[in-house]
Amino acid sequence: MKLALAQIRIVGGAREANLARAEWAIASAAREGADIVLLPETLDFGWTHESARAGAGPVPGGESCERLCQAARRAKILVAAGIVERAADRLFNAAVLIGPAGELLLHHRKLNELELAHHLYATGDRLAVATTRFGTIGIMICADGFAHGQSVSRALALMQADLILSPCAWAVPIGHDDAQKPYGGLWLDNYGAVARDHQLWIAGCSNVGWITDGPWRGRPCIGCSLLVGPDGKPILRGPYGPDAETILYANLPIIPAATRRRPAGMTPRQLGAHA
């Protein structure tokens, strides 16, 4: 199974341009033979951008969701992407997994949103996996990956996920020096422990560009998209920087959950507390 991580540029508030960029990335990944493409978090409006209050739509049915479904159908590949969802009077930081016929397979709402974003996004209320011809896939979003005790990713693992996909928006403080303090340790620690304990794959894909609204206005999103294998070690890492737009590819020999072995002597309860 060939996985693409589409580390694309997201411009705050520019939904049309951002969706066009996502459509381009989906088509490009398909031309390179990808079976699944993972895109960033809140790719339509940008993380914490206030324009989502007026422009966000429902899942399914909203413009962002429907255009991604159409792009997946045209390309005939699986698409995992983060968008902003409107549900009645609330907004959610959401993610979707879309099948190659354009069908909605999973709809996730971010559970572990950073406190500083609660003014815009409501707390999520669901967690699920989907069975595909490439194995069982789970979806989480960014900070879900370091929820207390790695509870979100470990729950997906116990739901028999072979692969966890995470749309992300990884930002650093203004003036961050990657040479002095290389980015990514947080994700390596949290992805690696869960992937190793449960012998599965975890991928996080971040956008690049600048956050132009909200509490982190002025911070750059710097990519560094990451794929960790069942041994807990990084297989693929994206380049760093607000201009580091790229699409990364990896071939994954999925090990079905039914054939994987837990670490000796560990029960599901112990696994959940093994962070």
CATH topology: Nitrilase/N-carbamoyl-D-aminoacid amidohydrolase
- Number of helices in the DSSP assignment: 6
CATH class: Alpha Beta
| CATH superfamily grouping | Carbon-nitrogen hydrolase
Low-confidence stretches: 261-275
Strand proportion, as a percent range, falls in 25-35%
Instruction: Assign the structural class, choosing from mainly alpha, mainly beta, alpha/beta, alpha+beta, or little secondary structure.
Output: alpha/beta
Number of strands: 14
Helix content: 10-25%
String of helices and strands: EHEHHEEEEEHEHEEEEEEH
- Report the sheet with the most strands, covering strand number, pairing sense and barrel closure: 6 strands, mixed
Basic shape: globular
| Radius of gyration from the alpha-carbon trace, in angstroms | 17 Å
Number of domains: 1
N- to C-terminal separation?
29 Å
Strand order of the largest sheet: 5-4-3-2-1-14
Mean of pLDDT: 93
CATH architecture: 4-Layer Sandwich
